[in-house]
Specification:
Elements lengths: L1 E9 L9 E6 L4 E8 L4 H17 L8 H21 L8 E10 L2 E7 L3 E6 L2 E4 L6 H7 L5 H6 L19 E6 L5 E5 L1 H4 L4 H8 L5 H14 L6 E9 L1
Antiparallel strand pairs: 1-10, 2-3, 3-4, 4-5, 5-8, 6-7, 6-9, 9-10
Length: about 240
């Protein structure tokens, strides 16, 4: 299975800086988006630390080891790296980051997430969200205590229940998938999904265009819809 990828990031129209970060290696089958949080430049530091640590470990992983276990180890290491850095500076106390990653190996893929950065798959022009948000309102929706319309308007919609660097340990969700030629995977920060509905994302991703152009279109659409947060999207296409 052959894969190709492209990414784009933008600070949006309201934020003074960009606290998102991404990284990928087609050669090693590792793709990653992080959305940092914290005062001053702390969010930028947390997301960059997470990308650096996860990419370092997963691009040098032992091919004989289970991918899910390697991913969980990388998440734990990134969590610890952020905690260690925060302990060395009061200005960085409380910083953290969400994370969504895609790992591919032949016809298998693993989607890994912590927080509310999302992973999707477009197959046969149908978009499916693979990851589950670790946010207070989304967990209320899943338990039936809040409907989707209430979640969109809730003042608590920014409350994240799981993130890297905010607790001594963190457990990612890991979803194993089969890949097929033509599959298109989207990894993104919530700056994209807060502005564009799944139906809008699906429509944009159906366009017959290079991955770089699709990324540019998604960022532009999110900015046009308000651009209230940093926007990052990473696309990965499976070929034959």
């Amino acid at each position: 299975m052959h894969f190709s990828a492209a990414a784009a990031t933008d600070r949006g129209r309201k934020r003074p800086s960009n606290e998102d970060a991404f990284g990928y290696s087609v050669e090693h089958g590792v793709y990653l988006v992080c959305d940092g949080m914290g005062g001053a430049a702390a969010g930028e530091i947390a997301s960059s630390l997470a990308v650096d640590e996860v990419m370092r470990l997963l691009t040098s992983r032992d091919p004989g080891h289970p991918v899910a276990a390697e991913a969980e180890h990388a998440v734990a290491a990134a969590n610890q790296a952020i905690l260690d850095r925060a302990r060395r500076s009061n200005k960085l106390a409380g910083m953290g980051t969400t994370m969504v990653a895609l790992l591919v190996k032949e016809r298998h893929a693993w989607m890994v997430n912590v927080g509310d950065s999302r992973g999707y798959r477009l197959r046969n022009n149908r978009l499916e969200q693979i990851t589950l948000d670790h946010s207070l309102v989304e967990e209320q929706v899943r338990m039936g205590r809040m409907d989707r319309a209430e979640a969109l308007l809730s003042p608590l919609r920014n409350v994240i229940t799981r993130a890297l660097g905010t607790q001594g340990s963190v457990t990612p969700d890991v979803f194993e998938l089969e890949t097929a030629p033509g599959d298109l995977f989207l990894l993104c920060s919530d700056g994209l999904t807060r502005e564009l509905s799944d139906a809008m994302l699906e429509s944009e991703l159906q366009a017959d265009a290079p991955l770089e152009e699709l990324c540019t279109r998604l960022v532009a659409a999110a900015n046009q819809a308000g651009g209230h947060d940093n926007i990052t999207c990473l696309l990965v296409r499976a070929g034959s």
